[in-house]
Design goal:
about 240 residues, two-stranded antiparallel sheet, alpha+beta, 10-stranded mixed beta sheet, Pseudouridine synthase, about 20% helix
């Protein structure tokens, strides 16, 4: 895993990494033996501080500070919602409006641990969306979050009827199979089981924009889309276009 880590930017104050899906951002609270991004990066550095996180199965851009003062400045930026945070996702359905916003408060479920839901007494949460491309009854969409609530994009997209293509908590599927779009044209050899094209939520932190914590130079970081999401899009273009 360490060889696959993609450092997008690094200077004496901070670094930005393109986190692969399936990797924790920080150590697990109970099991420290589970691989995590922080442990891999700090092994080669004197200091490292977590600024923000991504879900284990969400890929893309994460910032780390390399000293306490930079950590303090970046933390304040994120608390004040200064950085522009853009994601891309593959979702179910076709949007009636090609651009829009979901402004719905989110709260943790009292019945299902680790699950979030739209609730009037929840914390303010705002997500803007913009359609990039449509494929039959699926959409590749850009999302910008103005707040950073747990599972925000996943809950907001599900709330408006466009859950992520794969999402065991908020969507329709735990895996996406080629046979769903190929249908009669899909042929399997006898005795073979079809393997899922995708088994995690197709959500990727694509871009971060913010002023440098010390020089105030505008930083605009882009994090390449991973192979699994590109593979889904490639199949959609081939079959559904």
């Amino acid at each position: 895993m360490k060889k696959k880590l993609e450092i997008i930017y690094e200077d004496e104050y901070m670094l930005a990494v393109n986190k692969p899906a399936g990797l924790l951002t920080i150590p697990d609270r109970f099991r420290h033996d589970i691989p995590n991004l922080f442990a891999m990066l700090v092994a080669d550095r004197d200091e490292l501080y977590t600024v923000h996180r991504l879900d284990k199965n969400t890929s893309g851009g994460i910032l780390f500070a390399k000293d306490k003062e930079t950590h303090r400045i970046l933390n304040k930026m994120f608390m004040d919602r200064v950085p522009e945070k853009y994601y891309v996702a593959v979702v179910d359905g076709v949007f009636r409006e090609k651009e829009g916003e979901v402004n719905q408060p989110l709260s943790e479920s009292t019945t299902t641990r680790g699950k979030m839901l739209v609730h009037p007494r929840g914390k303010d949460s705002r997500t803007a969306y913009k359609v990039i491309e449509e494929f039959g009854n699926f959409t590749f969409v850009q999302l910008r979050i103005f707040s950073g609530r747990l599972h925000q994009i996943r809950v907001h997209m599900s709330h408006i009827g466009h859950p992520l293509l794969v999402d065991h908590l908020y969507g329709k599927r735990e895996g996406f199979f080629l046979s769903e779009i190929k249908k009669r044209k899909f042929n399997m050899k006898k005795g073979e089981d079809e393997r899922a094209l995708l088994t995690r939520q197709p959500l990727h932190s694509r871009r971060l924009k913010f002023p440098h914590p010390h020089t105030e130079k505008p930083m605009d970081m882009e994090f390449p889309i991973p192979k699994d999401i590109n593979a889904i899009l490639k199949q959609f273009k081939k079959i559904l276009k």
